[in-house]
Amino acid sequence: MKTEKTPWRSPEHKARIEAGLAEGTREFTGGESALSAPIERRDLLKTAGAMAAMLGAASCGLVRRPEESIQPYSVAPEDAAAGKPLFYATAMAVGEDVTGLLVESHEGRPTKVEGNPLHPASLGATSARHQAWVLDLYDPDRLRRSLHEGLPVDPSRVAQALDDIRAKLLPNGGEGSALLLPSVTSPSLLRAVDLVRASFPKLALHRYEPLTLDTAYAASITAFGREVLPRPEFARADVILSCDGDFLGSDPFSVANTRAFASRRDPRHPRGMNRLWAMEGAFTITGAAADHRMRVPRSRIPAALAQLFIALSRLDAGVAAAANPALAERLRAWAAPAPLASRELNALAQDLLGARGRGAVVVGPRQGVASHLLGTLLNQALGNLGTTIAHAPRPFAGHPLFARGPFESLAALAASAREGRIQTLFILGGDPVHTAPRDLDLPSALKKIPSIITLSDRKDHTAALAHWAIARSHGLEGWGDAVTVDGRASILQPLITPLGESFGEIEVLTRLAGAPAKAADFVRRTWPSLAAEGAWRKALHDGILEGEDARVAVSFDGGKLGAFFKDVPPAPSLELSLDGDPALHDGRFANHAWLQETPNPISKHTWGNALWISPALAAKLGAKNGEVLAIAAATVKIPFEAPVWVAPGQADESVSLTLGHGQKTIGRLGEGWGVDGYALLSTTGSFTVAGVTLKRTGKHVVLASVQDHQSLEGRDLYRETDAAHAEARPHTHGEEHAPGSEDDGLVATPKSDAPNQWGMVVDLGKCTGCNACLVGCQAENNIPAVGREGVLRGREMHWIRLDRYFTGEASEARLVTQPVACVQCEAAPCEQVCPVNATSHSREGLSDIAYNRCIGMRYCANNCPYKARRFNFLDWHQESPQSAPKKREHLFDLFRESEAPVKMQRNPDVTVRMRGVMEKCTYCVQRINAARAAAPRDGQPLPEGSVTTACQQACPAGAIEFGNLLDPKSRVRRLKELPRQYALLGELGVKPRTTYLAAVRNPHPDLKGA
Amino acid sequence: MSQAAAEAYVDPSLTPGELTRSIAEPVEARPPRWWMVGAAGAASLALLFVGSVGWLFWKGVGVWGLGSPTFWGFDIINMVFWVGIAHTGTAVTSFMTLSRQPWKNGINRIAEAMTIFAVLCAALFPLIHVGRPWLAYYFFPLPNSMGIWPNFKGPIFADFFALNTYLYVSALFWYLGMLPDLAALRDRATNKIAFWAYGLLALGWRGGARQWSQYQKAYLLMAAIGTPLVLSVCAIVSMTFAPSILPGWHATIFPLYFLTGALAAGFSMLGMLAVFTRSFFGFKRLITEKHLETINKWTLACILGVAYVYLVEFFIAWYSGNLYERFTIIHNRLGGPYAAIYWTMLACNVLIPQLFWLKRFRTRQNLMVFVCLAITVGMWCERFVILVLSVHRDFLPGSWGMYAPSLVEVATFLGTIGIFLTMFLAFLKFLPVISMAEVKHSLPSSHAGSAP
């Protein structure tokens, strides 16, 4: 560039140019002209080479684009706005319990279940099982393809096989064929069954499901001459006696029951508070909610009811008149030895008499006919029938399917099979091989059947025995309908086409009937009233058909009762009582990570069950938690062992076990944990084993409990009061502390002028501890399950947990439950210690976490006095027992999500957290933000009710209230002003935004202080 | 400086030449067999650290035994343990330099080496224990596109700077003190590599009067900087815990608690290393029994401070009337599930050190190593008590839990011991273990011409 012709400005300049010190024509020397300067060949090649090298580097891994092609919405579905969820009404049946639901769908993926406010069994709330239903859809262990002799086959071959079977059966009218159904709630299904029967008149109908309401129906035939179900109206009952049941928890209709019951756990209710008495052998959440709980073993409940009747007859001639002298005489024999202490008995009798026509005696579904009859007798004598106890006729009553009880029906099926009278068996759902009483030895009977066709969710025990296991569609994948026991009907609509090549019941049955129909058309034809498009659309939209609950007037005939009480029951012995699991029900939810990890509300165990024994019995045996006991009884043929949990409040003459655990084949989750209680179930349909002996084996099992310590340690954490003092300062179980000072102390409370200041109140008196909030939060906030090992290490991720404490003596313990999530402290200790400012306060009073900024130092969690923070110790989405691991894409692929389909459940509005990041309750900030986005104007308070947190929405008791504290009319603000409101650990001065209402109890005046 | 006092610590018959030879020869000679075996063992242990941390990074913090409510376990226990040991080195040199304590000359080099290696071991833990270690640089106040700075008000930020400052100043102090000796090694070097290496390190030290004068000023200055640093780093590490809300951490006595504990831990470790060095190298004439006895007296003094703090903790827990405080400090420590660790701590930190009142225990090597080892174990238990016993049963009994380390955690801790020993053995081999220049000052021959 430097040439001889370079012009110079001065002799000095010229000298410098010649010395090579100055540029010639350039006025400035800072490189300003570099771009305009001519480029040399070498520079060009250098630059081009560098670019090529960088491009090469980029294309070999630095830029990662998906290899698969993607497709845009070329034609957008109607009403769908990308990013906005749609809600569809449908319903879910668990046994005979049908609950209307609204299911949230994001771009065609069902992600979350909410209750349907229009449905009487939901009223907007749900249970833990409903919340968990959506993950069931995405279970990787579900049958994707049907199996023939254990090998996957195409759906066309299934259809062909059904046609072949039909052709084979047609000539002889279905001789030698049988159909086994679980509980039926669907009129369309029954219509399809009838179509099949029309083709094959000789088809034998059987039904089996272990946990049903059949004893109540059986008792009603004796009492009223027809099949009706007593339907207690808990909202109207002032005094309730629950006898060995869990109407707030595991029993059917618990959602609506809890809502009605909890509405009366309010001292300001115009009709006053109700009073709940409970008699039970093993603690249930109903017993925990009771004002008085009496420990009565299951087999002694009839005696207790007889004793109560006698006590009532002594007090009141009207009651005595309900039973003829012969019956009264027999009941006296039944009542010995008396299970109830006289002090409690008298108070209970007085209470029930004082609430004539306003009381309810509720008998649990695991009780025998005798107890149901006695319950009815008591309700009749107390004038409760027709006032607080309505009666609903059995849906589909008179259908031949219900000619026999489930256990009789299954026994008959097994007998026929053994005699070789069945050649073809259709099993339509359920897993009868697992749930059948073991002494029936169903597998050996089924092996005599040459052709078994089962419709199965998974490769379960039944599918393993069947020749054809047809993949069954999930309830969210197909059309259907369902009626509640009260006769209210809903249409079930699919939210997604089947993820696998699966079939619905209706498709299979109509094919078998020779008239293959689309389920949607078939269902619609079942309901002539929905023929009109408008009516059909409204039914789909509302999720419930118009109508009233079916109620019948019944007339009680006490005369016939005597026959039932002829034989005095055997002398009491140590009993073992079985019941459905609060989470897994009869075992159908065993392959479900959320429900396996849902702590039992009483024992707080996850991933397995244990034999509950009373502290006194444990002391007698010398057994400790986790020790394995051998269980023997006259009726138990197979040696049976179970780990033990010393259960405070357990009746001394009773040990109990829940069903549904310990399955061997159900999937990647069900195996290995817990023990299978069905081994103890007997063909008689009794859920009680009498004359049990227990022996120590010296073996030990570690029980995966989420809570190791169960005493309040004299601390002022859980407060309660009674109805009479609800407006005064509540009583505490511990040493009371001065409330925290109002001044700011060392750490200033962030001041904000934001128009919304969020806060929450939890009414401890309403909370039953049912876990609906816990699973609802898990579904909403993409919270992973951590598995048994994770629980043992204390790494559960639940953002809301239910702390459970026992108070009082170990034997007569009372149980209190306290939901704890992040309380969003205004002076949050977690925020002060974060080294990187990853957690800080929002203007609306939320303690936020910026996941991107969190390095996982965990001081915040140490410093959280509520221990509400949860840490991703591992990549839970990979380590989660339910998700199939996704392969590592490159060495630094540190965030490895779970493989489809489990990740299809994720809520797209909530970040999925990677390993090494802290997380906690956010007050469902995504819902707050959605409400803010939908609000007409910015900077204004959001209207009351526009934000509902997931826990609040799921809660059937209405125990959780959330809203804007600045709004003087908001419900949360009004509750905060109640005198029984208090801040948990308020004395620490952290100023929690979530506070509690002391539980209000309503003890009987004669038993106060007991 | 009292000449008599200084002379009492070294064998007066030593000549400067003998002294230089005896210190420099181990550096120049081929390493002895015990060194080779020891170094191989220590390096293998250090490899255990590499392996266990590799697994940690691959899988996540879940490979440790942590969970709710103990979100910290061996990671922070061992960090505090090493930080504690680290305090004494700089304390010995800087306090003793300022207060003209001539006895420190024999052992200050070892003490400082111990400090630096222990701080390095301690510094490993905060970096590896975070959930996302590849983002640990968020600790640094670096400008970033997120516009977020570290939490300047938070205790960890101060901790981070305190530890770093301490590490740098200690290392500089150590190096500065070594300059004349490095020059001596350079001058004695018989091969090229040693000549160049020590020559580079010696920074052109010639030993002229002017150099000596400036050197001593600089050394005094470093001592003056180091002294408050020892106090501040102690206080600030303790302030990692004290600003929390947890009973057992939230205490104003923590700076004193950590200072006394750290000095006691450091002096006892120093005692062990001094015994180790003099036995293996035969430095018995340089590190005399008098040195050991003085170290042990210091240990005893610090132990009394520790015992006082334990007592005050109990008193305040009772006197405060605070339910949680009372439970954590009194009930859960004395009778909780980890009571065995607490009682071990009391026995090792309070009871056994009382043996130092007996001269036999202060001067006999075997006996004093027993006591020093007990204190080291006791101090580790103290870290465990402070960390785990405060968090595992805090406010809500429903969230109480237990903590047990996983094998990976134990391996990581053993690995840091390996790293420490590897570095210490390397120090023994490659650097002058005793300050030749300073010891020569204490020799009678160096004062031959001066007036008595």
List keywords for this structure.
heterodimer; A: 1010 residues; alpha/beta; Rossmann fold; Dimethylsulfoxide Reductase, domain 2; 5 domains; four-stranded parallel β-sheet; 38 strands; B: 452 residues; mainly alpha; Formate dehydrogenase/DMSO reductase fold; 16 helices
Description:
Chain A is 26% helix and 18% strand. Chain A has 30 helices and 38 strands. In chain A, the strands form 12 sheets. In chain A, strands 5-4-16-15-14-6-7 form a 7-stranded mixed beta sheet, with helices on both faces. In chain A, strands 11-10-9-12 form a 4-stranded parallel beta sheet. The longest helix of chain A has 22 residues, at 41-62. The relative contact order of chain A is 0.11. With 452 residues, chain B is mainly α. Chain B has one domain (3-133, 147-171, 228-446): Up-down Bundle (Formate dehydrogenase/DMSO reductase fold). Chain B is built from 16 helices and no strands. Chain B has helices at 3-7, 16-28, 33-59, 74-98, 108-128, 155-188, 192-201, 209-239, 254-281, 289-320, 323-335, 339-351, 359-363, 365-391, 407-430, 436-442. In chain B, helix 4 runs antiparallel to helix 5, helix 4 runs antiparallel to helix 8 (209-239) and helix 9 runs antiparallel to helix 10. Chains A and B meet through strand 29, helix 25, helix 26 and strand 33 of A and helix 6 and helix 11 of B.
